[in-house]
């Protein structure tokens, strides 16, 4: 056993750049998440946002949350992410089955702007009520002013393609 070096005295192994690790599993380069599975008779409707795969973010499509808390030394990144999740769930619950696009959340200073496309299936007075109710409740919960920007459209107008 004299031909084996003494590993305790080898300080070069302590440097992270000189270590080599063995990977025994195969590399799985499956790009599966964020993509929609085609149906046999091509009956699934996609909007333009849904039709673009995730690697086209910032090229063909945009982010669904706009804030500056995720940059280096940003304030409250975890709280902002939780608030975005809460806002999306509150909006889909309050505006039940009305949104035909993604809910876009933009934060500018202390103002929270929520945008989206809803379908024209309810009376405009109910849309005005839901807008005021949502702005008031969310601004009380989030303790910052909230502005709702809603556009109405028919579901067929947002169709991009069938898969």
TrEMBL record:
Domain of life: Eukaryota
InterPro entries documented for this protein: Ribosomal_uS3m
A cellular component annotation (GO) from this entry: ribosome
Keyword Transcription regulation: no
Compartments where located: Mitochondrion
Keyword annotations of the record: Mitochondrion, Ribonucleoprotein, Ribosomal protein, Transit peptide
Keyword match Transit peptide: yes
Family the UniProt entry places it in: Belongs to the universal ribosomal protein uS3 family.
Protein name per the record: 28S ribosomal protein S24, mitochondrial
